[in-house]
Write a structure and sequence with these properties.
Blueprint (H helix, E strand, L loop, with lengths): L9 H4 L3 H11 L5 E8 L2 E14 L4 E5 L5 E2 L6 H4 L1 H5 L2 H5 L3 H7 L7 H14 L16 H9 L12 H14 L11 H14 L6 E3 L5 E3 L1 E2 H13 L4 H15 L1 H4 L5 H8 L4 E5 L3 E6 L4 E7 L4 H14 L8 H4 L3 E4 L5 E7 L2
Antiparallel strand pairs: 1-2, 1-12, 2-3, 2-10, 4-7, 5-6, 8-9, 9-10, 11-12
């Protein structure tokens, strides 16, 4: 696929865009398979196509739907991989980071007080301020936090950004490496270390990257590569990356409330399936790390619908026996659909 960032002026970069897009659709997206259906009564109302892979710790594909070699940007689903150098470098230990800090480094939080206060404390520990972040300002998704800003006539800050925990990790690593402040740039020592860890864990040389919503590079890999990386996180190991992956994975499982937040799929499903680490990503990517099975899951929904990626990850967890089908967190995403009056009007089902 080549480098996924535009290195040329926009006008020049768009030359040939139409045929490139059509070629991509013909060679990549058409390999997707129907995975999630939404029914209303006896009518199929919507269908979501995509890809899913289950890998074991040796990198072998146990099950797959769609094209395992389909190349994606994993977006925030790979934050555990982006946090690996924070631990392997010794930066986390040197800074005295706890499991709560490590969970937040892997999070896409919603800016609730439980998240923002920990970010601010971490910044203070580093001797940094909100201005040192390169993730951009984002209004908190948490209703209470959002209402508080409105009622007190305050503006959102960068620490409210859902990726601010990850960026705290980047700042910590940059400081440990005595590197410059532009830690988000692709040639910065922080991002060079991230890429090396990402490629080692996926077992692939990335074909390129895109710039994520938080301004950090997001390296591409295949669905199988992402599942392979998560299986390696599940298995851990005696090597530095294996130990770091275990530490980060365990932190996520110990603090699901920090990984996302109340009402969110990652948090609710981790509580429903103890011993499993979960992480969503933009454009309908979702991963699962299952230490008890030494397995990893990666899914990508073709149309970017989060509804479908949440339903699919729940279905796969049920299939693997780590989530009860009748648990409220599962039924919220997979099963009967009810209207505002409580009447069942349809259902969401998985085609596995």
């Amino acid at each position: 696929m080549g480098n996924l960032t535009h290195q040329r002026p926009v006008g020049e970069a768009l030359k040939g865009y139409s045929w490139q897009k059509n070629a991509y659709l013909e060679t990549e997206m058409l390999n997707a398979t129907p995975l999630i259906e939404v029914w209303r009564g006896e009518f199929l109302e919507s269908q979501h196509r995509g890809h899913a892979v289950v890998c074991n710790f040796e990198g072998e594909i146990l099950e797959a739907w769609g094209d395992p070699e389909h190349v994606i940007l994993p977006r925030s689903s790979c934050k555990i991989l982006q946090a690996l150098p924070l631990v392997t470098s010794g930066a986390a230990a040197a800074q005295g980071l706890t499991a709560r800090h490590l969970a937040l480094a892997c999070a896409s939080h919603q800016g609730a007080d439980i998240h923002s206060q920990l970010v601010l404390d971490w910044l203070g520990q580093l001797g940094k301020t909100d201005a040192d972040f390169r993730c951009g300002t984002q209004w908190p998704r948490d209703i209470a936090a959002s209402n508080h800003l409105v009622k007190t006539d305050q503006s959102a800050c960068r620490y409210h950004n859902n990726c601010s925990g990850k960026h705290c990790g980047f700042l910590t690593l940059a400081q440990h490496l005595r590197a410059g402040p532009e830690y988000h740039e692709v040639d910065h020592p922080v991002q060079i270390a991230v890429r090396a860890a990402f490629e080692e864990m996926t077992g692939e040389t990335s074909p390129g990257y895109g710039i994520d919503g938080c301004s950090a590079p997001n390296w591409a890999c295949s669905i199988a590569g992402l599942a392979r990386a998560m299986a390696r996180c599940a298995a851990g190991g005696a090597d530095p990356l294996g130990k770091a992956a275990s530490q980060l994975r365990d932190a996520m499982m110990a603090h699901p409330e920090l990984v996302a937040g109340e009402t969110r799929a990652c948090t609710e499903l981790m509580r429903a399936a103890p011993g499993v680490a979960l992480k969503t990503g933009a454009e309908a990517v979702f991963i699962a790390i299952i230490p008890g099975l030494r397995a990893g899951i990666a899914v990508k929904i073709e149309d970017g619908a989060t509804r479908a990626s949440e339903a699919l990850i729940a279905a796969l967890l049920i299939r693997l026996g780590v989530l009860e089908a009748d648990h409220p967190a599962a039924l919220k995403r997979l099963g009967p659909i009810h209207n505002w009056d409580g009447l069942q009007t349809g259902q969401i089902s998985a085609l596995l």
